[in-house]
Structure formats: structure tokens, C-alpha cells
Write a structure and sequence with these properties.
Length: about 400
């Protein structure tokens, strides 16, 4: 039996004249995601993308698993392909659905006929196939109002498709249709979720991580890499730029008022991230900040942080409660890794009493006695690049 995957595109359906570009990008992203599993044909017709395996050995469970993580897909279903012949449709449906129909389930059949030359109308197809399935499997019953299983028969341009389970897709927009941005990634719970959320809106990612050896360990950096690998299941390939941050943090600690340490550190993070972003073609920065979560995430502190960069700063978690952020992190499977106990550069130097309402003029004054430029340039120059998502 020939099994394929039918994909319903998501919001891209709303994009009017750009629609073709979005569909082409989605097809490219799908192909990239599954190419290691074997050869496939991926084509779009009548607003459905059809993924057909061309090699016998292809594992369709694995293929479906990968497809479930491609942004831009609203829903997908595995379907069986047959000729546009009512006898073939009946028999193929019975054979394909046997594993589900050997249980005591209720079902109904819905049909769509986009090939108007097919001699049976949709209600007739449903009646014929439904009747045949009910006769073949005496243990099942028809329930048109609240069925356990909806069987769909689609008679399209080149073939007929039979499927029984529509699965929810990853939603969002195809990655990279919305440009590229740099996610400031720590080993915490929040920033991987922020990365996932912006990738879902079609953003291609680059990741910037600040490390402060020997205060932070190689394990902490590995943890960040592991988190990004999980995020890249959705977001696709990206580079991780690890910035040596020790000297700058030590300078802030030595030269600036303790209560302003965090806000000045965050401003330096922004300045360095902007330099990297500009080098690698990113048009915005992304952080995992959420309003009021800690002292550096008050309106006043965020205003001071933003002033350090000319780029737009996206904070997709800004209005989310921690418990909602955790729910997403569990869903995308980053939670456990985020909870591993390695020190981050933020926690190592945390002041005892950070200013919750820092005044920008005082922050700038505190910064003014030091020449940061050489240190910033040196940090950017010594960035280490790690490739993420090479598996796909
Ligand atoms: P997270 O759970 O993402 O670590 P958090 O609630 O612990 O966030 P902070 O430690 O104040 O909050 O950091 C706020 C944001 O700053 C993070 O979400 C992340 O975007 C960025 N950030 C913090 N530490 C680093 C780091 N070492 N490297 C890069 N970005 C960082
Ligand atoms: Mg953190």
C-alpha cells in the first residue's frame, strides 16, 4: 500500500499574493527536515502539500514525527493512495483502516471530490465506502454525530486518498519567512521558550550565549548547546555564538556600583549582541524576559536595557506567567535540560540588592568612567561558533 502525508498549510493561506512564496518556503523547509530519511516528492496542489516517499525503506512514523515539528503546518494526516475507482477505494479503505477498525469504534465517512469528472458525488462516495466498511467490520458502528474516527476520502486530480486521523501541526509560519534575529540564550527555562516562540512566527535564529569561565563551567555551555539542539528540531539549523564575557563582568563588578551591576551587564549584552547580529544578518534581538519576574525585568530596567541597542528587542514572554512558560518548555522538551544545575554568568555575579528602578542617567554616569569599546570589540572578536542542528 502506498502511504503518503497530506499537509494543510496554516496561516500562510491568508497571505494573498505572497502565498506562493510562503508555500515554496514551506516545501523547502519540509524537504530539508526529512531528506535524511530517504527520497521524497513534495508538491503543492489545491492548497494541500503532498509528501510522497520514493524509497521502499522510508519509515513513515519517523517522517510524521518530523513533519509535526515544521512551522507553517496547521494539520496533517497520513493517507493511503489509490486509483480513482470506487471498487479500489472501497477495498483499499478496508485494508488500510484494518488496524483501527478491528477495535469496537464508531465512525463516519466524509468525502471531498475536487475531480468533478469522478462519476460519484461526495455523499454517494461516503455512503458506499461507509456501507462497505460497516459490512466488512461487524464490530464497528456508524455514528454521524459523535464518531470516534472520521474517515476522509478525497478524490483529487491524480488519485484518491483515504485517511482517518488528522493530527494537529506545529502551527505558526515557515521559518525564515519573517527574517532573522539573534536570541540571547542562557541555560534557563525562559530563553529557549522565547527562541521557540519567535521561530514559530517565522524567524530564523542565531544564538548568542555569554560565558564567563572560570566562573561558569564548560558543562553550562554544553547545556545551552543541548537546549539549542532541542529548539532546532523546530527552528532549523543555526549558529551558536559563545561570547567570552569574564573580563567585562569583572570590570563591571570592580568599577560600577553593586546595585547597578545587573542592568549594566544587560546593556553590555545588548551592545555585544547587536554587533554579532549585524555581522550575521540579524534584524532584531530576542530575550526570554517576562515583566516583573526579577529586578532586571521591571519597566524601568527594561527601558535602560533597550537604550543600549538600536535594534528592535523581541520579548515574546513579556506577558506570560512562569507556569505558562514552563508548560511550553515541557511541551517542546527543554524543561528537564533547563533544570540541570549549572551556573549561568548572571547568577554568578548577582548583586544582593539590585536596583529595581534604575535611572538611565545614573546608569550612564556609572558606565562613563570606563572605556568599554576595546573590551566589547575583543569579546566580539573572540566569539566561538558552534553549529547547531546539523543532524537534519
Ligand atoms: P532564562 O530562564 O532564560 O535564563 P531568567 O528568567 O533567568 O531567563 P535573566 O537571567 O535575568 O532571566 O535573563 C533574562 C534574559 O537575558 C534571558 O531570558 C536571556 O534572553 C538573556 N540572558 C541571560 N543570561 C544570558 C547568557 N548567559 N547568555 C545570553 N543571554 C542571556
Ligand atoms: Mg537566566
Amino acid at each position: 500500500m502506498n502511504e503518503i502525508i497530506l499537509v494543510k498549510v496554516g496561516e500562510i493561506a491568508l497571505k494573498g499574493l505572497n502565498r506562493k512564496n510562503f508555500e515554496d518556503l514551506l516545501i523547502k523547509n519540509i524537504k530539508r527536515k526529512i531528506h535524511k530519511l530517504g527520497r521524497f516528492e513534495v508538491v503543492c496542489s489545491q492548497s494541500t502539500i503532498r509528501i510522497t516517499p520514493l524509497d521502499e525503506f522510508i519509515d513513515m512514523d519517523e517522517t510524521a514525527e518530523k513533519i509535526s515539528k515544521v512551522f507553517g503546518i496547521a494539520a496533517f494526516s497520513r493517507a493511503c493512495v489509490t486509483e480513482k475507482d470506487i471498487e479500489k477505494i472501497k477495498n483499499t479503505a478496508a485494508e488500510y483502516l484494518e488496524p483501527i477498525f478491528s477495535e469496537n469504534i464508531s465512525f463516519k465517512v466524509e468525502s471531498k471530490r475536487s475531480d468533478k469528472k469522478f462519476p460519484y458525488g461526495s455523499p454517494e462516495i461516503s455512503r458506499i465506502v461507509g456501507g462497505f466498511l460497516a459490512d466488512t467490520f461487524p464490530n464497528v458502528r456508524v455514528d454521524v454525530h459523535n464518531p470516534d474516527v472520521v474517515v476522509t476520502v478525497e478524490v483529487r486530480d491524480f488519485a484518491a486518498y483515504i485517511h482517518a486521523n488528522v493530527e494537529e501541526g506545529a502551527g505558526g509560519l515557515p521559518v525564515s519567512c519573517g527574517g532573522k534575529a539573534a536570541i540571547l540564550i542562557s541555560g534557563g527555562i525562559d530563553s529557549p521558550v522565547a527562541a521557540y516562540m519567535m521561530a514559530k512566527r517565522g524567524i530564523e535564529l542565531a544564538a548568542v550565549h555569554f560565558a564567563s569561565p572560570p566562573y561558569t563551567s564548560g558543562r553550562a555551555e554544553e547545556k545551552v548547546r543541548d537546549l539549542l539542539e532541542i529548539v532546532s528540531d523546530y527552528a532549523g539549523r543555526m549558529n551558536m555564538y559563545t561570547v567570552p564575557f569574564t573580563k567585562i563582568q569583572e570590570t563591571i563588578q570592580r568599577e560600577c556600583p553593586e546595585e547597578l551591576f545587573t542592568v549594566i551587564m544587560r546593556r553590555m549584552m545588548m551592545k555585544i549582541s547587536q554587533r554579532i547580529a549585524e555581522k550575521v544578518g540579524c534584524q532584531a534581538l530576542i530575550t526570554g524576559e517576562s515583566l516583573g519576574q526579577v529586578a532586571s525585568q521591571t519597566i524601568g530596567a527594561l527601558a535602560c536595557t533597550d537604550e543600549a541597542t538600536d535594534l528592535p528587542v523581541f520579548r515574546p514572554l513579556i506577558g506570560m506567567d512562569k507556569k505558562d512558560i514552563i508548560a511550553v518548555s515541557r511541551k517542546i522538551n527543554t524543561f528537564e535540560t533547563s533544570c540541570l544545575p549549572y551556573e549561568d554568568c548572571c547568577t554568578v555575579f548577582t548583586p544582593r540588592h539590585p536596583r529595581t528602578k534604575p535611572r538611565l542617567d545614573l546608569v550612564k554616569k556609572a558606565e562613563s568612567s570606563i572605556d568599554w569599546e576595546d573590551m566589547i570589540a575583543e569579546a566580539v572578536e573572540n566569539v566561538k561558533i558552534t553549529r547547531i542542528g546539523e543532524e537534519d
